[in-house]
């Protein structure tokens, strides 16, 4: 399962967000059931970021969302949002990367 989250930050908090993310990224990446994750930045808007994570199961993602780690991360970053986060979950229909 893939989880995308779009984060639109207040411009004055971008550096705070990146600094905080750097303290938790390896913990999130190592969370049980997480196959890996990336944070991407929008090419046109310096205050827009996306997280991309792959999970073994939806239950693993829910375990993370109800974990102490998420309880540390989310309240901290939520205060820096310009807009509410947008989250999308999906399954892979076709993976051309695996064919290369």
Automatic annotation (TrEMBL):
**Classification via InterPro entries:** ABM_dom, Dimeric_a/b-barrel
Domain ABM, first and last residues per copy: 1-92
Look up keyword Oxidoreductase and say if it applies: yes
Q: Which organism is it from?
A: Brumimicrobium salinarum
Give the protein name, as stated in the record. Answer: Antibiotic biosynthesis monooxygenase
Which keywords appear in this protein's UniProt record, sorted alphabetically? Monooxygenase, Oxidoreductase
Q: Does the keyword section mention Oxidoreductase? A: yes
Q: Name one GO molecular function term.
A: monooxygenase activity
